[in-house]
Structures are given as structure tokens and as C-alpha cells.
Write the C-alpha cells for this entry.
Amino acid sequence: MTTPRPPVSRLAPSPTGELHLGNLRTFLLNWLLARARGWRLLLRIEDLDAPRVRESHSQSILDTLAWLGIDHDGTAARQSDDLEPYRAAMRTLASRGLAYTCALSRAELRRAVAAPHAGDREVPYPEALRPTDPDRFRFDERPVNHRLVVPADEVRIVDGFAGSSVFRPSEEVGDFVIWTKQGVPSYQLAVVVDDARQGVTDVVRGDDLLPSAARQVLLYRALGLDPPRWWHVPLVLGPDGERLAKRHGSTSAESLRRSGVAAERVIGLLGHWLGALPHRSPIDARSLLRRFAPRLDGDSLEHLGIRPVTCTEEDVAWLSACST
Ligand code: GLU
């Protein structure tokens, strides 16, 4: 008799900047879920966005997670280490008539769909512009974008936090780019290939990526693979009501660590935001896990009521209140 394999999840940071309290809340919840339920938790550095990636950010992400006690299983993987699995997926898609080359620039696309004033807005790539020439349905390693044939189907995402939502990628994005003219897979393709080959069964990440889940489901289907279970976590907002980001400087993990804030304070604030602690109070990750684990059971965690939270100036001041 074979023992069933445990579910697998992953932390997938992009080393394009420092982690902030919003990223940390999602990672902490991913870690709590994994450790409470006996999932394996992998770490994958998503470093294919070459111009924005910095080695120093990779190191600072690893240091921050270790500082907070958010551990992972196995060695960290880097997407840039081996592009062959992505190329293999491209060859499969092209051989199935589901991926094709497209040399249109953004401006040409806007003109072709008569939306020259769309500004920076992404224009959905319409079916009408899909080529008929079989020669275009080949994986071509020369510097050219490749697009996925996106069917007109609705895609329903059933999510452990967000419940059920319906997307129509053919209208929202149309045939989206899956391989870029820089010679690397796009985020959408890379994440699907990696999650599939690493056996990821449960994806926990920010809910800004919920629409991406629908696009990724189309890629899973096109490659004949089963999608994972989804857990999209509402984001943390800055004091200005905008999604927490790098420009909210004082919330970067690196600057908190450098200014002597205790890891237990950061975990205590994040735990309070997750509803695991009635008030902000210092606690280490393992102790938080012991308190929160009983509430992390079930196929849906809608009962936890995890909602967007605002990181207030008082929150940031509390973090530093007892700095060493
Ligand atoms: N690397 C992506 C990010 O940092 C997350 C990708 C994912 O979880 O699917 O936004």
C-alpha cells in the first residue's frame, strides 16, 4: 500500500523589491495553513523578470523569512536555473495548435483593434487577429512573443477564502502572451509549469492574482494538467487607502529589521490582522501557530472572514515601540 502524498504549497516571492507587511501577511498565512495541515511548503524565487530582479532582494527575502521563523521544506528553487521545462511546455502547446507567434507591438495591436487611445491599458487580443497560417503555430526560439489560443469559455474559480467567482479571459485579456520576445516564459506560463512540476496542490497568494487564476486554469487545461486548489488572500492597504507597496517605505520588512523591530512584534501585528489575536501583542510564529491551528480546518476558510486590512500609522508606531 502506498502512503498518500501530502499536499504541497509554496511561497513564490519575486525579488524585484523588498517584502512589505502585506507580502508577509500572505506568507505567514500560507505558512500557518501548511504547518497546521501537514502540507509541504516549498520556496520558489520567481526571478524571470530580468530587468527588475536584484540578487540583493533574493537574499533579503530569505533573511526576512528566516528572521520571522517562516521556514520552508527543501532547498529554494530559482526559475532562472533551468528554462527547459518552460520550452517543453511551449512545444506541447504549439504542437496542439494552442500557441502561436505574434510580432505585433502594443501600438500596432491598439491600431489593429481600433483603440489607439487606450493609453497604458492592456488591450484584449481578439480572436479575429489569430493567425491561420500553420507556420505560426510553432515554438520559435527567436525573439518573438507567443500567445495562447484563449477559448471563449467562462472559467469558474472556487477559492478557499474568496468563494466562487466567474471570469471570461477571452473578453478580459484575449489571447495573452505566454512566451516573451526576451526569450523567457511570461509569469502566467512559468507559474503553471512550476506549480505542476513541483506537485503544488494548494496555491495561497494575494487576491490581486485572482483574475490570473482563471488564465492559469486555461493553461492547465491546454497542457492536460489538473489545477491546484486556490486560496487568494485579501491585500493589506496603506494608510492612504492604496494597496500596500514599496512606496510605503516604513512597512518594508528590511527597514523594520534594520531599525531593530522585534520579529515577535511583526508576527503579533500580522496575527492580529489575520484575526488570530484579539489585540496586537508580541508572539513568535510557532506560538501563533499553536493558537491558530484549530481554526484552520476545513475546505473553505470563509468563516475566518479574512478581509483587506489597513496598515495604520498606529500599527507602524506599535511595531517600533519597544525596538532594541
Ligand atoms: N511571484 C508572484 C509575486 O510575487 C507570485 C506568484 C504566485 O503566487 O502565483 O507576485
